[in-house]
Design brief:
The structure is a single chain. The chain has about 190 residues and is mainly alpha-helical. The longest helix is centred in the middle third of the chain and has 30 residues. The termini are far apart.
Length: about 190
Amino acid sequence: MRAPEHDRGHSLSDSAEAAFVSQLTECQIALQLYIRSLLMGDPASADVAQQANAKIWEKRADFEPGTNFKAWAMTIARYEVLSFRKRQARDARLCFSDELETTFADEIAELDDDLSKRQAALQHCLEGLSPGNRELLMRRYASPETLSQVARQLGRPVGSLKVSLHRLRSTLAACIERRLANLGDSI
């Protein structure tokens, strides 16, 4: 059984769609040459042509039969080339100097060291919690169980569990900050 026209994702009849495909096929070589000429030998021209074809297909219901199909398709292709050039220009701004890359590397190394210290402080602070509180945190954050599942298994309301977890996170955060401050004082 065929889906009604309005449910098939476009508004072209089968015969109009066949005519559209025929026209699109006939202008493929011209379309690819046009895109190559605009991108002057860029190896990405094949990708841009593919994007242009996808956009042409997406806009097929906008084409008015009886008008110049090739001109319509070339206009869409030109906009795809312009879009590609904008992306290339935007990406080109992301090139960094050697000095900036070195700065990034140094800061990432410092960040890694800071994360290691924080992880050690977290481990120390977790050990200071009661076994029940540690187990609650592990069940919530180190297992695939949802908050609702944990609450149900513990026989507690979800809201109550949320409050307990919030308090535990606050306790841990304060403990970590104290631990890091003490480590900083001893350095």
